[in-house]
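quick one before i forget lol
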Amino acid sequence: MTGTTVHLAVYDTFADWEPGFATAHLTRHGHTVRTVGLTAEPVTTMGGLRVQPDLALRELSPEDSGLLVLTGASLWDTGETLAPFAGAARTFLDAGVPVAAICGATAGLAREGLLDDRPHTSAVPFYLAATGYAGGAHYVDTDAVTDPASASRGALVTAGPTEPVAFAREILGLLGVYGPEKLDAFHRLFHDSDPSAYEVLEG
């Protein structure tokens, strides 16, 4: 699948290193990445970068997107500021459009009830348990999880805060950027620093 528009949520304190592997390889393979803020006002990332959103959340529609990506941020755990993005994730999933969440964004989805009945992962089980969600039985202790789409909802990717490469691997597989062999090579190259994977990935 090429030519899809992927929407990356941006907000103050967002963990700017978490989506980089995914967005770089998506754009290399013909996808367009657009940033979405709560408003159109600039935000400042956790790394101190200033980002001007391409559009405001009120302008975002699942019909115009192939994926919504939510990264971690301090704000996920300090109030309801980012709750509208969890609400947007619900809208996307209900429309059959996939969502990918990493780090603190998984807690936002947990609070929204989106992890109550589907396989998922995060930092550690007790991090999500602190949200009061009902999905603990569906927690998977692994680097990243993709719960595939069904007739009633879109696919969901989740990952923990130390797994940006695995997060990207799942996204790139979900959108058909790489097949299984190249996905394995991608992970070996960028996670394990295995130079032999380069030829497979770029071949």
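fyi The mean pLDDT is 97.
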